[in-house]
Amino acid sequence: MESESLKDFLRGIIAEKAGIELDKDVEKQLVSDLYERLENQIYRALVNELSDQQLDELQSKERSAEEILKFIEDNGIVTKDVITRVLIQFRASYVGA
User: Fold this and answer.
1) What is the CA radius of gyration of the chain?
2) I want to staple 67 with a disulfide (CB 3.0 to 4.6 A). Which of 12, 55, 56, 63 is the partner?
3) How many CB atoms lie within 10 A of CB 6?
4) What sign has the CA pseudo-torsion 1, 11, 48, 77?
């Protein structure tokens, strides 16, 4: 996942919800806080796409974030589709809240 793309997405929904231009420090803190939540939701959704057997194999050894994504993709999960679904849900939840 490209962090700058996700941060741009977050800046956009923050601006949409706020309706005004926020102080740069406030925006930076919001992006930081929301980025962590969004990244966790993306990884959770990707892992939830795996079968129990695939999940056991994934957890059988320590892996970096890149290795986890490669494992997920190698097991037939279309990460782009899952990430898009999470972004849509995240936006709806944040802006609609």
Assistant:
1) 15
2) 63
3) 19
4) negative
75 with 54: CB under 8 angstroms?
yes
Say how far apart CA 86 and CA 83 lie, in whole Å: 5
Amino acid at 13: I
Q: pTM of whole model > 0.90?
A: no
Q: Residue 10: exposed, middle, or buried by beta-carbon count in 10 A (0-12, 13-18, 19+)?
A: buried
CB 58 within 8 Å of CB 47? yes
Sequence-distant (≥ 6) Cβ neighbours of residue 90 within 8 angstroms? 13, 38, 41
- Are the beta carbons of 77 and 46 closer than 8 angstroms? yes
